[in-house]
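Hi C.,

You asked whether I'd gotten around to modeling the 432-residue construct. I have! Everything is below, sequence then structure, no commentary in between.
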Amino acid sequence: MLLLLLAAGCGHASSPPAPTSQPVPAVSSLLAAVGPHPRGYARVSLADPQIRAQLMPLAAAAQRALGASLADCHIELAHLDRLQIAVGEPVRFAAELDGKIDVGAIACLLGNDGIATLARGGMVIRDRPGGVAIDYQVERAQAEAVRAAGTDLASRCAGATCGAAVLGPPDRRLWVQVGYDKTLRIQISGASLGASAAAIVAAIDGLRASTPALGLLVARAEGGALVVEIPGDAQTAPSVAAAMALRTQLLEAFRIPSSSMVPTLMVDDQVFVAKGTLLGAPVPGDLLVHTIEGRQYIKRYLAGPGQTIAETEAGLSIDGKPLATEVIDASFHYQDRDETNDRMLDRSGALVREHLGARSYLTLRTGPPRTTGSWTVPAGQVFFVGDNRNNSNDSRYQGASPQDTIVGRVVGVWLAFRDGAPDWNRMGMPVE
């Protein structure tokens, strides 16, 4: 879903995937370089005029930041041919840049101190025939060791300018493919996509009459996958308008600033929030964004109008019925931000699965409740709680919130980290 927004922002669309009758390309040496768990692979043709035009502002920004221009270091965009990148887990990165460029030119651009700093951090830039190679914590592996995962990844990126990534745990893979050949084509597929493809297509179609900017997009559900295309003659301004229309009316990205929703959402997670026709009718158990005095919060919708919530040391109950719980991990550890000096701290608590009707989700208990009591939800309002029950300012302290303050529903995590490294198994996954 991240790439749905990127599509609207770029103004180009990707080419269709290579026909299945074509031979499957061999596993890239870069995929082999990042080890047995490749997660992403991309190829960019720098010779394409539109790609080159988009690189010009980046080159100008680099000059302002580094104090040296590409020309100062004898680097010409016209002499750069292709960039290939592979990413693996836990933290593996390898890239090759083809063209008239060498380590000396990059050292000129970054400075010797910059090169040394990268090397100390584990990133090595070296000359290779036809260009340069960049490695970050790469453990060289035999190609055979990555053939099963790498072949599939490489086959999804067969064009001159394309990208493919696999997100989520092994049993719930989510594939994201992007290709550009005068048309930007984005495809998202996988079992965890569920009914989202059809819902997004229906929502875009429903908005076309009132939102002319969305006429730029071609969106369809294709064999259970979501496919979005933007014609190659699209201009930047209409593309930005389409992106803003999507953000305002359908799908918006949010960053999680605090630990109040641990373990469901971690500090600095990036999530997608469905709005408008994608929101639907919220039901208890949903993670919702709502507004209090101009600020937006993400909490779990626990109860609606007329219901009574009570909290004791035994836990929560609704209308006199205790919510069933079970302890999953008595010493769950997580990272929390100390806002006093902006550093991360290790904290722990009991990981508890809570059941709310047909829904179940994980919560965190770090001790007895901060408060006990009962609350009856007024008409037209809803009651919110945070999953980190002892570290959340919610309806137990602020009172219930009017239903018309609901902005949207959290549908999934698109960017996640754990212990400073990408948490690939959570990226792209829906939330409980």
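If it helps when you're writing up: Confidence is low (pLDDT under 50) at residues 1-24.

Thanks,
B.
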